[in-house]
Automatic annotation (TrEMBL):
This is N-acetylglutamate synthase, GNAT family. InterPro entries: Acyl_CoA_acyltransferase (IPR016181), Diverse_Substrate_AcTransf (IPR051016), GNAT_dom (IPR000182). Gene3D superfamilies: 3.40.630.30. Keywords: Acyltransferase, Transferase. Residues 11-148 form the N-acetyltransferase domain. One of its GO terms (molecular function) is N-acetyltransferase activity. The keyword Transport does not apply. It comes from the Bacteria. The keyword Cytoplasm does not apply.
Length: 148
């Protein structure tokens, strides 16, 4: 299977917006925050100051993306990456596309000198949990909370 993983660019904004819609509304069934808001987010990530987005491209079509945000861990006293988004279209799950996208995020984290990469997934997302275990990830002991 021929595909390319690279950092998102300005030319990807429209296609990446569609893919993010599939992720937010289709996969997670959350409300769409709005196209202008998503464009603003992508444009901020293109600056590579607070985070980055990797995209997976196959035959000039985007089939996956991952978002890494840069933050700091007090426990590590070091910079870390938060893999906030990790998504590939259904036909490419459990394939080398998914594995290579994950490995690209992990390699970037290591090569850029971040202490570690962390992420969360929904408790019911057993497929993702199985995938992360296969990629040698260790489930943490912390509980996550949020305020809406």
């Amino acid at each position: 299977m021929s595909f390319n993983i690279r950092l998102a660019e300005n030319k990807d904004i429209s296609s990446l917006t569609e893919l993010m819609h599939d992720y937010i509304v289709g996969f997670y069934q959350n409300p769409w925050p709005g196209t202008p808001e998503i464009h603003k987010l992508i444009e901020q990530l293109l600056e590579k100051q607070n985070g980055i987005q990797f995209i997976v491209e196959k035959e000039q079509q985007l089939i996956g993306f991952a978002t890494l945000y840069f933050t700091i861990s007090t426990m590590k006293a070091a910079r870390i990456t938060l893999m906030n988004d990790f998504f590939v279209l259904e036909p490419y799950r459990d394939t080398e596309v998914e594995e290579e996208l994950f490995l690209t995020c992990r390699t970037y984290t290591q090569e850029q000198g971040f202490a570690h990469m962390f992420w969360i997934t929904a408790p019911q997302n057993k497929r993702a949990q199985h995938f992360f275990a296969k990629m040698d990830a260790v489930q943490g002991n912390w509980m996550n909370y949020s305020i809406v």
